[in-house]
Structures are given as structure tokens and as C-alpha cells.
Amino acid sequence: MVEEIDVLDNPAVRAYLIRMVGEEGLTLLENFDRTIEKTDEELAEETGINLNSVRNTLYTLYGKRLAQYRREKNQETGWLTYKWKLRLDNLNDALTEDMEEAFEKLAARELYEDENDFFICNTCGIVYTFNDALAVEFTCQCGMHMEHFDNELLLNALKTRVAAMRATLGKV
Hints:
Blueprint: H1 11-30, E1 38-39, H2 40-47, H3 51-63, E2 67-73, E3 80-86, H4 91-115, E4 118-120, E5 127-129, H5 130-135, E6 147-149, H6 152-169
């Protein structure tokens, strides 16, 4: 479990956050005091990051439940002000959710690679399943003859990755 106190010092977490919100978003997170609420305007002013980038980062984090907001309505003007607070205590849930999604996609790809036989056109590089190649009599759309494609290396890599993810996620 990742501790919130040093979460931004963890290289794996930093890489995850950079993929999610980019370098600018990570800079915002590093400069965001997690103990108080701030408006997006305050954050933009304090960090020098463009207001639209700050808002995009906050909405992305909100979508992963890593930030929350509270709305305040100005009674005189009717304007709404959003006060944001980081919720990095939800980081483990976000990581697990993303890993589950990646696991499902990789497991489906592993099954597809395992259940199919493939043929490739060495001229244009298009790969066909056996049924698709058979339907066009093993002749590519470019007119060249297809050859069998050995996907064993890819399949083994997928099996290894899926097994590791299955173990990490506690799936038996």
C-alpha cells in the first residue's frame, strides 16, 4: 500500500501520475498543499501554470477520485467558486482500477493470440487471421501471397505479463 505522505516521492507513482496528468500536472500536485482547499485560480497563480491546464488536471484527478471539490455560491453575484482538495489517499484504489482494466485487455488479447493462427503479407505487413486469409485465398489486398506468421514470442510475452498481473491483483 502506498503511503500518502511520501506518495509523490515514489518513482512508480510519479510515472503513473505523469501518464495521467503530464509533467505540468505533476508540478501542480507537488505544489498543492494537501491540507487546505484552493480554487483553480489560486493554484494557477501560485504555480504559474495556465488556468486551463490546472482545470484539466483537476478534472482528470476528480475522475479518478484523487481530487474533490466543494462549490460555494456568492449570494451577491450568483457566481460559483470551486474549492479543490487533493485526495491522494484514494491512489491505491485508482491504481488497482487501472490495473484491473489493463489486465482485462491483456487477458483478452492473450486469448485472441492463443486461439488464432495468423498469416502476414511480407510486402505491406498486414496480419490476417487464418479465417480472413482463407476468405481471400491467402492473397493480400496488395496482390502478394501471405505466409504463416509465428506469434509465439508475442503470446509468451502476453502470458508472462498476464500471469504477473493476475498474481499482483490476487486473481487465481
